[in-house]
Amino acid sequence: MEVRGRRIELPQLFLGLLSIAVAVVVTAEIFAGTVHDARHARDTLSVTGSARVPIEANLVRWALTVSAEGPQVGTAARLQRRQTAAVRTFLLHGGIPADEIQPSVVTSEEIVTVLPHHQRRTHYRVSQQLEVRTHSIDVVERVATGVGGLLERGVHVSAAPLAYISTELEKAKLDALEKATEEARNRAEILAHGLGGKLGRMRSSSQGVYQVTPRDSTDVSDYGINDTSSREKDVNAVVSATFAVNR
Question: Which domains can be identified in the chain, with CATH numbers?
């Protein structure tokens, strides 16, 4: 056979065309497989997991403010000192150890009252805070119920609510985070199976803010909750995760 002056043997022509055809088929298969893999590499599943870990406070903080007023700062200071001593004795007799009662710095302020005819009256208030910090929660709860007796005796004391704290809070947060992540994976596996696929590796994840709430509370906040009003609490964690799904 001659093509533009060149002679080509038919067997050689046939083999050349066959080689080109095979190359095209192989290339098409490789390309098809690449497209298939690329398409399914984008298959993902996003889920949210949550977990609640119960925790109990093992520390309590309690602040009591003792104040006294008088026409002179010295008079107010002496009265305040006597009243602070009465409060301290009350706490000690209630079973709170002395080293768990921490006094703050004494503060004073001048109070001016405007009277008729451009007159003014000046007197002074002197205050000090006693902070109780102890693991003896039962003792403090019992003592706190007796503050009314101090008021009846004329002691000017203001008691803040008990603040319940757990020194194991950080560990409880990590436990809740681990359980929330596990729940997210379990949910994803169930959904992937229902879709006829197999769950792959985690692609991304994000964690919500912790909600430390009173036991069995359903309260949530965008900024998180850190409850100190209750002795028994729940540490709540939420995790959002995206997983690959293999077909």
Answer: 41-56+168-246 (3.30.110.170), 59-165 (3.30.70.2970)
